Every structure is written in C-alpha cells, then in structure tokens.
Amino acid sequence: MPSEQRLHPAAILFDLGRQLRNFALPGVLLLFTSSRGRANEGPIPGVPGWSAWMLLLIIPAMVMSLTRYLSFRLRYDEHELVISQGLFFRSERHVPYARIQNLDAVQNLVHRALQVVEVRIETGGGSEAEASIRVLPMSAFHEMRRRVFAGRAVPAAAGAPAADDGGGAVPAAATGDEAETLLRLSPRDLMLYGFIESRGMVLIGAAYGALWEMGLLEGFWDHVPGAGRYGRSAIGRVQAATFGQAAFPFELLLIALGGLLAILLFVRFASMVWAAIRLHAFTVTRSGDDLRTRFGLFTRVTATIPLHHVQTVTVRDGVLHRWMGRTSVRVETAGSDLQGDEGSDRQWLAPLIASEKVTAFLRHVIPVGDLETLAWEAVHPRAFARAVKPALAGVAVFSGLLVPLLGWWTFATLPVTIGWAVLATKRQVAHLGWYADDEVVAFRSGWLWRRVTVARVTKVQAAAVHASPFDRRAGMASLRVDTAGASAVRRIDIPYLDEAIARPLHARLVAQAAETEFRW
Amino acid sequence: MNGLLAADGAGTATPPPADPALRALDPRVILLDRAVGLIATAIVAGATLVVTIIVQAVADDLALWMRVAIEVAWVAFVGLVAWHGYHWPTRTYAHTRYRVDDQGIEIRRGVYWREVVNVPRSRVQHTDVTQGPIDRRFGLGTLVIFTAGTDYARVELHGLEHGDALRIRTYLLPRATPDAV
User: Fold this and answer.
1) A348 & A403 share domain
2) How many CB atoms lie within 10 A of CB B21?
C-alpha cells in the first residue's frame, strides 16, 4: 500500500460538475428568459449572446479542478492524517486519528459506476466537516478506515479505563473486522418508517418549487377542469356565506375535504417510497468499538461512529410508533454535521426499531437499562399547576384571535380548547422525568411525541440551575445539562424540579463530571 | 445592598485562585457599567429626540399642548432609561458571585432569572481574558471560558479585576494530560 494517497482521476470530473452546478440554475433561467425575448446573436449560433459568454467562466473552474487534483496528497502518519493541497497556496492539514468523530462515505450512482467514494471526516470543531475528500478510490477508503481506527484503538485500549468506552454488557471485542449486525431494516420496515415520519410534504414542496421556478406550472390551473368555478370563486363564496349573504357552499367543503384527504394519502405514499429508496437496506453493525451504519439504494452512505464519541442518545416515538410497537433511536456526536438539522439521516441509529428490542440495542451504545422500567423520578408535585397557566394563556390568545371570525360562538369552542390544554399539560407533566446514576443522566418528556435523551456523565460539559421568578415563588428550578452537539429537541433541560432536588443533583453532576477526564 | 457586599468581602483583595469562598466581582464594575449605561442613555436620548423633532416637523398642525406632551414624554422616557442605567449595575453586581475551586468554576447571576452555571475544570477547552477600552480605564477584564458544549460553549464573567481574571484563567487552563489519545 502506498503511504501517500492521491485522489481518483474522476475527481476532476466531479469537481467540475459541482462547480458547474453553481452555474446551472442561473444558466437555465437565463436560457428561459432570454429565449422569450429577442435572441441577439452570440459567438455560438443558436445560443443567445451572453449565455454563451458565460461558458468562458468555466475555464477558471477547470483550472481549479485540475490544480486540486494534481496537488492533493493524503498521508497516514503514526498518529495523524495529513492532507496537503494547493499549488501556489499550499496547505497542510493534520488531523489526529483520536480527534476524528466520524468518518462518512457517500456514493451516488455515478460514484458507484466509477468505483469511487466521497469521504467526509468530522472532528469536534465547528459545524462543518473537517475535510471533505472528493473523491477517493473505494480501496483507499477501506484503507483509511482501517488505518484511522487502528491507529486510535491501540493507545485507547492501553491507557484508558475500559468502563468509559461503553463496553457495557458486551464482552470487549477485539478491534478486528468481525462485525456484529445490530439492526437491519427490511423494505417493509422502511415503508412503515416513511409512513410514520411523513417526509412527503418536504418532497412535494421541493418539487413544486422547482417546477414553479422553471415556469412549467404557468397555466397549470387553467387546465384543471372546474378550477375556475371551484378554485377562484371558492374563497369569495365562503366569504359571502360568512357574512350571511349566501348559503354556505357545502359541496365546496366536501370537495376541499376530499382533496385534502387525497393529498394527505399521496404525501404519505410519497414518503414511503422515498424512505424505501433513501434508507434502503439500512444496517447497523458493530465492529470492535465502532458503530457503522450503511444505507441507500442509489446514493449509498456509510457512516462510522466510534462508540466513545457518542455524546447523547435520543429515543423518540409518536402515537403511530406506539400503535405499531416501534420507536426510533438517534445518536449525537460532537462532529454532527449541522446542529439541529432534523433532516440529516446520518444520525439515525435506528430509524425504526421494535420497542422490545430497544433495550438490547441501546446496551451496545450507552450504559443504560430498560428505559421503560428505569427508576424515573417525577418532577415537582405542583408542576401541573405551574405548567397549565401558560397553556391557558395560550388558549386565551387563540380565542381572542377567533373572536372576529366566530363572534359569540367563540365561547362554544372554549370547552374544547380549554379541555385540550388541560389534558395535554396534565399528560406532558406526568411524563416528565429524570434519572441519574454514576454513568448516565437521562431526561424524558412529551406526551404524543415522547422522547428520552440519555447522556453519559463523562460527556457533560457544563451544568446549570435556572430559576425564574415563577420558579422561585414555587420553590422550583430547572436543571440544564450541556453536552456537545445538543439541539433544541435533544437536550437535557429538566423543568419544574423541586429546588431541594435540583441543587444537590446539580452539585452531584458537576462533581461527577469534574472527576472524569473528558474524552471527545 | 451593602450587606451583600460585606458578606463575602469585596473583590479588591487578591484571591488565591482555588478557594471555596463565594466571591463578588470587583466593585468598580458598578461604575464601569454605569459609564456604559450613560453612553447608551445618551445615544437613545439623541435618537428619540430626533424622532420627536421629525414628528413635529411633519405634523405641522399639531396643537401646542400636544407638542409639550411629546417633549414631556421624551424627558420622562430618557429619565427612566437613565435611572435604569444607574440602578441596574448595582443590582446585577449584588446578584453575581463566582467560586473557583478544585472542581472548576461556578458562576451565579441573574436578578430575576437566576442562574448557577458550573464548568468543571476538566471540561475547559480554552480561556480568554478580554479588556475593552473602558475596561482598561477601570483596570477590569472579562474572563471567557470555552467548552465543547452547545448552550454553554462560551461562558463569560464580566467585571473581574484584570489581574484576578488572569490568575483564574491560568488556574483553569487545561492541564497537560494525555487527552483522548
């Protein structure tokens, strides 16, 4: 094996392609707009003037791609990866193996045809990947993975206490290549996942936006039969009915409801297809101290997450999940690409998993027992009285907005809205809970959508107690536990704690964190 | 207020970095924050004065009593801002405490919304001590602690005596341990 690795020659093509994509949209728009006007002749016959001149802009892009290809070198030193590039401005980046949080490989159809791969190396710094290497031969990626994780595993096993590495109940496997499959999703599971986590709306929105952008939707509504009658005048008729000038158009209501139902069904269907393609053959394997997820039919993604780089684990399920006895598991690393980006698929540890298998699955990732039977501690007994007030204030504002629309009828809606607010708050407060032991701290919340976030004590960065004026009056406080890569929906922030519980718990967490050395 | 000041001893005495006592900030921070408040008040007063003048110029059929009322409202508003700028620093000062010990640093603050933040020493990534032009006149500085966290990726403590800030900074700096490797 050569100790210096160059890019695959196809890198020039991909690089050029990426740069051209930046021109693509303005280019297409120009073609469309200028072809509608009078085309003035440019250097290329048939192509209007300045769009052709834009081709000149490609030349610097070509030079840049070529330079990048020619100058790129990748070297494996004893403890670090050295990436050097640049012809005139040379840069040499040293990435210690131990600092690499995850190593991802992305292969789309073209990549696969050419047997190459795009590699992303993530370290703890910042929100972007430390290095994106486009593109390496497939064999070079395997080589990199072997070297990066072998280079790190040896000193880690020698120097660090094993308990910190989350071995848990699993016997410490050698860092060999024997991989244990923890989860494999069948197409049926994936369809179910697509059905539950409906992403279809995003797809349709994107498609609609793209079509509209290209002007293909112009005149679309004119071709829909009856659009004039039901579409344009519908709002006017509803308005007329609201102000008592005409009978309420019930047939419009039926059509609208039917349409809505059809759209909802279609969205779910699109989401199912999308999930089956995007997450095709989703597999999680464990080899030694690394977790590997692999998925994708067309664009194939391989993500490698060293187990001791896992910061938090979040188990989340909605009503549909629970009906079908499923749940989902997400993992947060310090090198997560975008903070709070729910759309990212690479943090899925299990997009869908049978509820009864979660405990066994989690044991590989974080030292925590069965989440259902964990000794959860409830929040303050008067938490409901606190929580219901903002909920009722919300109802008041909402009802206020309804008044101009419904008039006195607003009072008829109050039993429903107030009832809902009280019920939802009651259930939410009942499900709030926390758990802490020597190794982990966990927080659960939510009613319809439930989540449990578990963080290792060794990954706690800071802990804070907050007390608002309302908290202080009620003798309560909230406890916030900060970890790397936390986000709004995946953080540990326990509200409505009895102050007499919050402060000692805070002190205990701080002491535990202070005793342990933080290892990314 | 003064009771609180006396309780833990003011920050003027040089503290040994690691010391379980809960300490107050340097009392000069009150003057400093008032100076900043004064500047802010002047800017706000100037900007709102311009607004009242423009309003009166545009609406030229305004009755005299309206014009007087606008100016009175302006004076009251500026007075309120100035009063707040004068009093708020003493309140924040009275409610800010810190402690540096073996475990790390603890910062307590907040007049209405109270907060106690602890950053263990082993989690400090790096530290900064910054000093602006007004800070320099007062001999004060701001200690900034960086962690690998998210909400508390950056924890600031403003109003330490510059020498204290440097000493705490040196104390908190990550020790040479075989990190992560």
Assistant:
1) no
2) 12
